[in-house]
Design a protein that fits this description.
By secondary structure, this protein is α/β, with parallel strands linked by helices. The protein has one domain: TIM Barrel (Alpha-Beta Barrel), CATH 3.20.20.150. It has eight helices and eight strands. An eight-stranded parallel beta barrel has the order 1-2-3-4-5-6-7-8, surrounded by six helices.
Length: about 260
C-alpha cells in the first residue's frame, strides 16, 4: 500500500497549509508516495502554465497525483444536475492537464424515489462517458452512503472506468459525521468489508490523533479489512479534525501518515 496526502485545506489555522504547494512540500518532506488534489481549493488558477508547473513539481518530488476531487451527489432539479455535470467536464479537462488518472465524484444517501435513483445512475454514467473520452477514471466516494448503496451504484452504473474511492469516515452513521459518536444501526466496518473489494484508493480520515493514533476510527481494523481484500492502492491522509487536536496541522498530518505507514508496512 502507498501512503498519500489530500490537499484539503480543512485545518484549524495554526501554522496553516494554505495552498496545494504547501501540501506538496509536506508530502515530499515526509517521503510520501501520492498527492490528491481538489479542483476548487488551493489552486492559484487553472491556466495551463500553472497546471503544468504543479504537475512538474509533483513529478520532480516523486509524487504521483492520485485523483482530482470534483463534485457529485446527483440528486436535485435537472438544472442542478446539469450544473454539476458541467463542473465535472471542466474538472476532467483540468485532470488531463495535471496528469491525474482519476476524478473523485461523491454520491450521497440512496434516493428514496425510484425516478431520482434512476436519474442518479444516468448522471454517473454520463460522467463516466465524458471521462472515458479523455482517458480518465471516475472514482465514487461514499459521501455519505451505506455498503448496500455503494454496491448498488457499482453494479448499476456499469462502466469500465467507474471505480471506488473508499472513505473511512463518510459512511452513514460514521463517528466522523457525529462528533465522534457512532450511530446505532450502522456498522461502518461491515460497510467497509462489504465494499473493499471495489476500492482502488482510500481516503483515510483522521479526526483526533494527538496521541499518535486515530481515536475515532479503528485503523488497525480498517487496514486488516483492506489487506483481506488484497488492496494494493493508496491510503491518502484526509484531516477533518479541525480544532479538536492540540498539535498543529503539520503534526496532525505527520502523525496520521506515520500511523498508516506502520500499519500498512
Amino acid at each position: 500500500m502507498k501512503i498519500g496526502l489530500y490537499a484539503s485545506m480543512f485545518g484549524k489555522g495554526v501554522n496553516p497549509l494554505p495552498d496545494i504547494e504547501s501540501f506538496i512540500d509536506l508530502a515530499y518532506e515526509e517521503r510520501l508516495d501520492v498527492i490528491d488534489l481538489r479542483s476548487d481549493v488551493g489552486f492559484s488558477d487553472h491556466d495551463s502554465t500553472y497546471l503544468l508547473d504543479t504537475k512538474m513539481s509533483c513529478l520532480n518530488k516523486g509524487l504521483a497525483i492520485g485523483y482530482l476531487a470534483t463534485t457529485g451527489h446527483f440528486v436535485g432539479t435537472e438544472e442542478e444536475l446539469q450544473t454539476k455535470l458541467d463542473r465535472i467536464r471542466t474538472d476532467l479537462d483540468i485532470a488531463v492537464k495535471l496528469g491525474a488518472p482519476m476524478v473523485r465524484v461523491f454520491c450521497g444517501e440512496t434516493p428514496e424515489d425510484a425516478a431520482a435513483g434512476k436519474r442518479e445512475i444516468e448522471c454517473f454514467q454520463e460522467a463516466c462517458d465524458e471521462a472515458a473520452q479523455r482517458g480518465i477514471a471516475v472514482g465514487l466516494q461514499n459521501h455519505p452512503c451505506t455498503g448496500d448503496g455503494v454496491v448498488r451504484l457499482m453494479e448499476q452504473v456499469d462502466r469500465s472506468n467507474f471505480t471506488f474511492i473508499l472513505d473511512t469516515g463518510q459512511w452513514v452513521g460514521s463517528p466522523g459525521r457525529h462528533a465522534g459518536e457512532a450511530q446505532p444501526g450502522h456498522d461502518i466496518y461491515q460497510y467497509m468489508e462489504q465494499t473493499a473489494k471495489y476500492a482502488c484508493h482510500v481516503r483515510a480520515k483522521f479526526y483526533k490523533i494527538d496521541s499518535g493514533a486515530e481515536e475515532w476510527l479503528d485503523y488497525p481494523r480498517i487496514v486488516d479489512i483492506l489487506k483481506a481484500a488484497d488492496f494494493n492502492g493508496t491510503l491518502g491522509v484526509v484531516f477533518e479534525g479541525k480544532d479538536i487536536n492540540d498539535c498543529d496541522d503539520h503534526d496532525v498530518l505527520r502523525r496520521a501518515a506515520a500511523q498508516l505507514r506502520q500499519l500498512a508496512g
